[in-house]
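Morning!

This is the sequence you dropped in the shared folder:
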Amino acid sequence: MFRRSDKNGDGTAGDAPGGLTPPLKPFSAKGSHGTGRGPSRAGLIGESLARRTVDVPQTPNRGDRPRIGGIGGIDSRRLMVGREISLSGEITSCEHLTVEGRVEATLTDARTLDVAPTGLFRGRASVDEADIRGRFEGELIARARLTVRAGARLTGTIRYTIITIEPGGEVSGDMRMLAPGEIHSDDI
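The structure's back. Tokens below.
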């Protein structure tokens, strides 16, 4: 069944004297196919490592992270649109929207809108706080705070209570601070 190749071409393997190879030793019992000598130092070290327990610091799972809001501390009204994902339509009752891909939608009744550097939000949004790192095109009402990060571009009708624009952030269109009576208005 198993045969060693004939390296020399004359019937000898060239490994053992006389061209004969020693026969293979059959396995007698599981783990007892050793040399017949006592356990080696390497075997003892391997066994001790296998039995040894090590305390490895655990990183918290995604589900273990503290979350803001929601019932019992669970933020069930969070939506994340990942890279290379496109979403279009109407988004309602979303507490926190994170856009890394492309969204063409109307967003109402939201608390927070985050547009990542790779993200594009095109449409209408009415939120408490907006943090824009990517692109926003359309109508935006930020009832509490609007933050425009370096490299971000906002175009359209922008309403805000407080605005922060980092150097390199770009805002163009119709911009106006919300009047005190407009702060809680959800009409876009």
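Headline: Residues 80 and 98 are 5 Å apart (CA to CA).

More detail when I'm at my desk.
O.
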